[in-house]
């Protein structure tokens, strides 16, 4: 069964509120346009960074 993306969130820098996007440009080798990690301003930049984090909806339900 194909995966369905339910929500997309980005933040301009670490510690700021994330904003939900209806659509966004994914940049190869960089991440999501406008996101802190794409712009190399994320908390984990140069430590343990990734370009995109995917979280399964059922895992969010379990956490809640």
The residue ranges in which pLDDT falls below 50 over 5 or more consecutive positions are none
Number of helices: 1
- Category from helices, strands and their pairing: alpha+beta
What is the average of the pLDDT values?
Answer: 88
Rg of Cα set: 13 Å
**Helix content class:** 10-25%
Coarse shape:
globular
**Strand-residue fraction?**
5-15%
- Output the strand order for the largest sheet: 1-2
The description of the largest β-sheet is: 2 strands, antiparallel
Q: What's the assembly state of these chains?
A: single chain
| Head-to-tail CA distance between termini | 25 Å
SS elements, strand count: 4
Q: What is the succession of H and E elements?
A: EEEEH
Topology:
Elements: E1 9-10, E2 19-20, E3 26-27, E4 31-32, H1 57-63
Short description:
This protein has 64 residues and is α+β, with helices and mostly antiparallel strands. Helices cover 11% and strands 12% of the residues. It contains one helix and four strands.
Describe the structure in your own words:
The protein has 64 residues and is α+β, with helices and mostly antiparallel strands. The chain has one helix at residues 57-63; strands at residues 9-10, 19-20, 26-27, 31-32. The longest helix is centred in the last third of the chain and has 7 residues, at 57-63. The model has no long low-confidence stretch (mean pLDDT 88).
């Amino acid at each position: 069964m194909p995966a369905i993306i339910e929500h997309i969130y980005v933040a301009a820098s670490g510690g700021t509120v994330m904003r939900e996007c209806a659509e966004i440009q994914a940049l190869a080798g960089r991440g999501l346009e406008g996101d802190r990690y794409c712009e190399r301003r994320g908390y984990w930049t140069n430590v343990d960074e990734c370009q995109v984090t995917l979280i399964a909806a059922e895992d969010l339900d379990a956490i809640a």
